[in-house]
């Protein structure tokens, strides 16, 4: 088995989908790096994008720094983002979970 070493920016790793920390150990990082190597950034067109728009079906992907500059919305409470096109749109609640205002 050949060992490989991967490097990525801390912010790119933290914000990557599928990366999480449990009891001081990082999980999902290797997979995130592999996916990022083939994922083109919607802003700069370079590979290595780790952040995707949270809006279902949106194809936009970004590097962390490109996401900051893209006028999207980074949501720190759940480490997700919405691209510029979707940042002001609300996600629809699943059927049965909608609240009626009276």
TrEMBL record:
GO cellular component, one term: nucleus
MF annotations from Gene Ontology: zinc ion binding
Gene Ontology biological-process entries: regulation of transcription by RNA polymerase II
PHD-type domain location: 1-87
Assigned keywords, A-Z: Metal-binding, Phosphoprotein, Zinc, Zinc-finger
PANTHER family xrefs: RETINOIC ACID INDUCED 1/TRANSCRIPTION FACTOR 20 (PTHR14955), SI:CH211-165G14.1-RELATED (PTHR14955:SF8)
Protein name: PHD-type domain-containing protein
Xref: PROSITE patterns: EPHD
